[in-house]
Structure prediction request, 126 residues.
Amino acid sequence: QVQLLDSGGGLVQAGDSLRLSCAPSGRTSNNYAMGWFRQAPGKEREFVAAINRGGSRTNYADSVKGRFTISRDNAKNTVYLQMNSLKPEDTAVYFCAAKLAYTGALYTVSSQYDYWGQGTQVTVSS
Prediction:
């Protein structure tokens, strides 16, 4: 069983930056492809970014491409989401997710993931 602890959210102004962290406990994250999703009030959960188990491949939603960066430090068992140039429309609860992976694939669909964090709130004021 993998438990994910995501953290780093907060209240910021438009144009500011935040870095979210996701630290799996129990089993190492090295065998897992990881992703970040977000859900705004009244909206469906949407894909934000994904990284494969080795960290060699990443994928981003068009809405965050060029502003957000997903990365992982397998030595620390931690995945990060660096968010720059934040916009009010980025306001949402952000969730990290993990999927046991035996290849270098990455995953962009929420139903593909096995484990989820509890979420961390990001609020961007204009």
